[in-house]
Amino acid sequence: QVQLVESGGGLVQPGGSLRLSCATSGSIFSIRDMGWFRQAPGKQRELVAGVNSRGMTSYADSVKGRFTISGDNAKKTVYLQMNSLKPEDTAVYYCNDRRSGSWGHGTQVTVSS
Description:
Layout: E1 3-7, E2 10-12, E3 18-25, E4 34-39, E5 46-51, E6 57-59, E7 67-72, E8 77-82, E9 91-97, E10 102-103, E11 107-111
Parallel strand pairs: 2-11
Antiparallel strand pairs: 1-3, 3-8, 4-5, 4-9, 5-6, 7-8, 9-10, 9-11
């Protein structure tokens, strides 16, 4: 069974940066079909960044140019580098493996002065 564990969230000021990590276990690692989602209070969960089965990345319009998804095969970890953070980026961020349907428990990101 695939397990995903997110880390790296926290409180950051507007304009700041954070790097989220998603450690995976239970399967052969591939960044393909992995994604980062987020859910703000009162809103639906939305895709922030993902890598499809062909290795192509995609980003929500609201984060293009600011967020980057990447992976480390040796560490079996997916990252989300978030720069120029805005208060509207505040949410719980989740890692997802589309092949297995597995989700992590989420990590809170709060952008506030």
